[in-house]
Design brief:
This protein is mainly alpha-helical. It has 15 helices and no strands.
Length: 392
């Protein structure tokens, strides 16, 4: 009986879903059209600003291609489509954090016992995970010795892994067939912009907005340089451009094949090095440096739009440039591992709770100084870190 009820409820739910989607379809179209209008308006504002400034800074340079305004419109459309969902997620996180205040604390659950600080909880969890792993490893010989006596239990234990491997093997075996079916329409068939996820569109065309706006800022600063006294001379930072250039090899066309990644990363590192050298020339001769920087950014923008991620700048512009490598994620992982291991050792040695705050400040400072040697804090910063940690 429950099975029949379920089978009868499925068509009813599908009908309700279809009627609701049909009723909301005009509203969705109206919202989509209004969003596209706002995207065109915002992109035209940025593009008109660039057309008003850059030709005066870079005379003789041709107008940007028609693809650049289209990239700006698509990015603004994706950004406006994703912003409401992100705001809702932020609101939910704030409500969850606010509701967590009413949860029972450790003192309420254990009488008058003082609750453990978060780092003690972390060290305890790490120790328990390590103990559990060590116990499982020590029991492996007995498990292997019992396989001939109880093969059925071993097969039952490994059945989920065998099933997963069988599924992967089946997909791998039939993948040539999927490839053949997918290419029946011809090699020139591509996905339309409407079928591409908004997150992918935002990542793909976001670098165009960053690079073009920074080039416009450089041009505006160059035009003001003749009227600005030396004490008030503006400087333009290309840090945001460095981030998008480093990710250009995977945001423009998706992640390429493995044998191409190293070459594209090396080219991006050289382009970042050239941008840093041009940025540093602002301290020597600001006017020509800003003009050169604007020209480089416009070139990078145009070639990114054209898909030439392996030639964002000419080889003549990159000759003698040392690639600038970035080890952001390994540094973060290394610093975090040092902090966790140090607090775990403090827990094992029985450090008093009053010392955990200043010790944490010293460990964090030492880890940052170790992995970010160019960002060692000054003595005043060190005192502020210790004081803020001691207030915990």
């Amino acid at each position: 009986m429950p099975f029949l009820v379920t089978m009868a409820a499925i068509p009813v739910l599908l009908i309700i879903f279809g009627v609701t989607a049909a009723a909301l379809d005009p509203l969705r179209r109206r919202i989509r059209a209004r969003r596209h209008q706002y995207a065109q308006r915002f992109s035209e504002r940025l593009l008109n600003d660039a057309r008003r400034v850059l030709p005066r800074v870079l005379p003789g340079r041709p107008e940007p291609t028609a693809n650049m305004p289209l990239c700006l419109v698509r990015w603004w459309d994706a950004f406006l489509a994703l912003t409401p969902g992100r705001l809702v997620m932020l609101l939910l996180i704030v409500l969850l954090v606010h509701g967590a205040v009413d949860l029972p604390t450790g003192a309420e659950s254990k009488g008058d016992a003082a609750p453990l600080d978060p780092f003690t909880h972390l060290a305890k969890g790490v120790w328990e995970a390590a103990s559990w792993t060590a116990g499982k490893l020590t029991n492996l010989p007995s498990v292997w010795a019992g396989i001939p006596e109880h093969p059925g239990s071993v097969i039952a234990l490994l059945s989920p892994f065998i099933t997963i491997l069988a599924i992967f093997a089946a997909v791998w075996l039939v993948s040539p067939g999927f490839t053949a079916f997918g290419r029946w329409d011809g090699p020139g068939v591509t996905r339309s912009a409407a079928s591409v996820p908004k997150q992918m569109i935002e990542r793909r065309y976001g670098p165009v907005v960053v690079l073009l706006s920074t080039a416009t800022c450089c041009g505006r600063a160059y035009l003001r340089a003749a009227e600005t006294p030396p004490l008030d001379m503006p400087q333009v930072s290309v840090r945001a451009c460095e981030r998008v250039v480093r990710r250009a090899w995977r945001t423009r066309h998706g992640k390429p094949r493995r044998h191409r990644r190293r070459e594209l990363k090396l080219h991006a590192a050289k382009v970042v090095g050239a941008l840093r050298l041009a940025e540093a020339e602002q301290d020597i001769d600001p006017g020509p440096a800003l003009q050169k920087l604007a020209g480089m950014l416009v070139t990078i923008t145009e070639r990114y739009v054209e898909g030439r991620i392996g030639e964002l700048l000419d080889e003549s512009d990159l000759s003698g440039i040392d690639p600038v490598t970035d080890h952001g994620m390994p540094r973060i992982v290394g610093a975090g591992s040092v902090v966790v291991l140090a607090m775990w050792g403090a827990h094992l040695l029985g450090f008093p709770e009053g010392v955990s705050g200043p010790f944490l400040g010293l460990v964090v400072t030492g880890a940052v100084a170790l992995f970010y040697r160019g960002s060692i804090p000054s003595p005043s910063d060190l005192l502020d870190i210790l004081r803020s940690a001691d207030r915990r």
